[in-house]
Amino acid sequence: MDKKDIVKMATWFVKDSERNLISKEIALSETVVGMKIFETPIFAFGAADDQYFQILKEPLVIGQHFMPPQEWLPQPKTVISFFLPFTEAVKKGNSRDMSWPS
Fold this sequence. Notes:
By secondary structure, the chain is of the alpha+beta class. The chain contains 4 helices and 2 strands. The chain has helices at residues 3-16, 52-55, 69-72, 88-95, and strands spanning 42-47, 78-83. It has a two-stranded antiparallel sheet with strand order 1-2. It starts with a helix and ends in a 7-residue tail after the last helix.
C-alpha cells in the first residue's frame, strides 16, 4: 500500500461511506439524520528518521515520555499523520453549547 492508496481510501470514506453519516439509530434529533460528519481528510507523510522527532522530547514541547518512531518500531520508514475535519454543520452544532458536543 502506498501513499496514494491510503489517501484514496480515506477520501472514499468521507465522500461515500454511510459510516460518515449520522444514522437514524444514533441521531439525537430527526433533523441530523443523514448529516455528513467529516470533510476530506488532511494528510502529512514524514520520514521516520526526521530529526524533528527528537525536538518533541524536549520538556517545553512534549517531554521525555514522547517516543520517536525508532524507539517503538523495529524499522520505521514513514510516519503518517492525518486529521478528519468536522463539516460546517457539525461545527455549527457544537458551537451552540460549548460545554457539550452536539
